[in-house]
alanine transaminase
Amino acid sequence: MTDRFTQRLNQAMDLRNIRQSDFVKAAEEHGVKLGRSHVSQYVNGKTRPRPEIERFLAAVLGVDARWLAGEQVAFDEHPATFNDVEQTTNVEHRHVIEQHADGNVQEDIEQHNIVELMDFEHRDSIEHEDVEHEYGIEPKDVAAHDVQPSSLNISEPTHASAPHRSGQEHIMEPQFDDDVQDPSFIDVPSSVTPEEPKVRGRRTFAKSHKLDNVLYDVRGPVVNEAARMEAAGMHVMKLNIGNPAPFGFRTPDEVVYDMAQQLTDTEGYSASKGLFSARKAIMQYAQLKNLPNVGVEDIYTGNGVSELINLSMSALLDNGDEVLLPAPDYPLWTACVTLAGGKPVHYICDEQSEWYPDIDDMRAKITDRTKSIVIINPNNPTGALYPREVLEQIVDLAREHQLMIFSDEIYDRLVMDGLEHTSIASLAPDLFCVTYSGLSKSHMIAGYRIGWMILSGNKAIAKDYIEGLDMLTNMRICSNVPAQSIVQTALGGHQSVNDYLVPGGRIYEQREYIYDALNSIDGITAVKPKAAFYIFPRIDVRRFNIHDDEQFALDLLHDEKLLIVQGTGFNWKDPDHFRVVYLPRVEVLKGAVDKMTRFFSHYRQ
Ligand SMILES: Cc1ncc(COP(=O)(O)O)c(C=O)c1O
């Protein structure tokens, strides 16, 4: 750890006996936007907060904010208070109000703020301190009454998350069915590889502030830690990513064969929305799902649904526009709204009602700035499938408040128990809807990268927005053409995925097993999923004294070498859930449940 801020943050946390979760709690109490993952990144030196957040951290720690920032003052010379933080925030708030009142003033003030941030960033990015360490020179700039190594253990801050396993341990680890292990950790994230030595005065580059509040914990710090463990030779059992192929779900032969046949015909760019044959097949699929008013031109292919979520939020949102999103959600949605400058507003999905959206909560959260409602149906991470009545209520709400509807239906063909999926767009011919789906899950080709979005209903009201979509679609030129070439094959004829979803089929039997097994662990309860391949169990947090679920996920990883994703990674507010991907075979799931049972039998946070 080389950064002075990080070093001092860790020192002060040790001194004041403050844990990461204490910052999050304090932030909630003071209305400051600060998530667990942010704090974890600051503590681990992956990123540095903005000045106002630094002041807030200093106030929680009761240390001088300048000291925390790395300046040569005593750590307790002028301890920051929450008043300082609030005053700063108020000043910034006044700026915002003025910005709204007067367009010209807005520009001036915004620019002023940006300059301030840039100055700070610049100061931050010249790393003098490391040079001194590099050349074996003692830091001379520590003030006489600065915090000393002896009192605060300046040399090597310790972290709960740091791997500290002996080389022998992994040799002792029981192995589970090798063919179902997800190989996706072969790439150790660059953020966990050793840093290059730094040279005096070298300019470094920080990430954009647009990413400040963007989180994607499905591949976040816990996953990085798992990658580090694997790189150290340990065997980690991964129930964290909905990637069917590594769990033995093979792409239908016909799909692979047809792509191979067409490979030489798909070397060039296609039309930006995609090949006609692919879009025609998707259009016909839309007809079967009763989507109203859909022509070939209303279909856009993408490099997975992921690209299209990003693209459609970027085309829609001005700064501060609000989008209603489910909690829990598939976090890419929240991330893309934030990245586009929008404000994600989460409505609750109610565990007591099969995880259906709470319509009253949705209604209560609509404001003048709300532009659209997002639903994920079937849902990741809960596995819920929304019945027609629930969808109708959402449509009524959207109609009443003139909102657009975005419906992520990537799991629409993975439905069990004889239930049928209804596309919300089929109930809303008078509204403007965008429906997303693709082949990643239903055809087990997540790696080929092919998804699509379908515009339907009242397109006249979205003419300008559609121009924006077209512009961004043109700018990325086109989606993966070989993958487009098999859409027609995939969507027509026998759907082999259906065999997995009925009694005796893998997904069905794995769902039955995991649902019963999780519910038989003391302190764990779960609603039975109806679709997809995720389950989102509840943890009795009192029993286990859990107040930080990222820490829980790390502890489970370290103790049992089992990787799950904590519930807050899905924008679920409380630390009382986690997501399990039940794609592995039952024998492997049994091993995972044994690990969980053992862990929960003794775990107290
Ligand atoms: C709800 C949801 N939407 C979109 C995606 C991304 O899908 P794609 O592979 O098409 O980018 C996922 C992937 O897990 C998902 O769960």
